[in-house]
Write a structure and sequence with these properties.
Layout (H helix, E strand, L loop, with lengths): L1 H16 L8 H8 L10 H7 L2 E6 L3 E8 L2 E9 L8 H10 L10 E3 L2 E5 L5 E6 L5 E5 L8
Antiparallel strand pairs: 1-2, 2-3, 3-7, 4-5, 5-6, 6-7
Helix pairs in contact: 1-4
């Protein structure tokens, strides 16, 4: 039983550290994910609304889009590499926890388009698509504020 608890704890810690955090620099994100990869698809509207540059990264299972403004992450979106699968609850939880920024996420609001959260301090929001294939977290100041 003790061994199981240690294994579960290690997996959760690894999942939490595998996700970038809003406000991190280009260098910090490169340390976390490695060098940017080729974009699996274009997302011009996010680039325009949130920052001045964007980059795609890849993990073993995920594509990660990061939009930077003045060298700091302002928008991050994760999607499964396997387009037939959904994001796992552990990936969703880890990304949300990594981007809590010392605050807490308020209770989610379900809409026809998916699930939305706002951070209690008002500094960020998150949106999970209804098909659970994409989760985005973003700084609220200077971007699109509403859902």
């Amino acid at each position: 039983m003790k061994h199981l608890i240690l294994v579960v704890s290690a997996v959760l810690i690894a999942a939490m550290t595998a996700h970038a955090r809003l406000g991190e620099s280009v260098e910090d994100i490169a340390k976390r994910y490695g060098q940017p990869t080729t974009a699996p698809y274009a997302v011009e509207y996010i680039y325009r609304d949130y920052g001045d540059t964007q980059a795609w990264y890849a993990t073993a299972d995920l594509h990660v889009l990061v939009v930077f403004q003045h060298g700091k992450s302002k928008y991050e979106m994760v999607t499964p590499k396997d387009t037939t699968t959904k994001l796992s609850p552990s990936v969703i939880r880890a990304l949300m926890e990594a981007n809590a920024g010392g605050s807490t996420w308020l209770s989610p609001k379900e809409t026809a388009g998916g699930t939305n959260w706002v951070r209690q301090d008002g500094g960020a929001r998150a949106s999970l698509t209804v098909d659970k294939k994409a989760l985005a977290v973003m700084i609220t100041a200077g971007g699109r504020e509403g859902f």
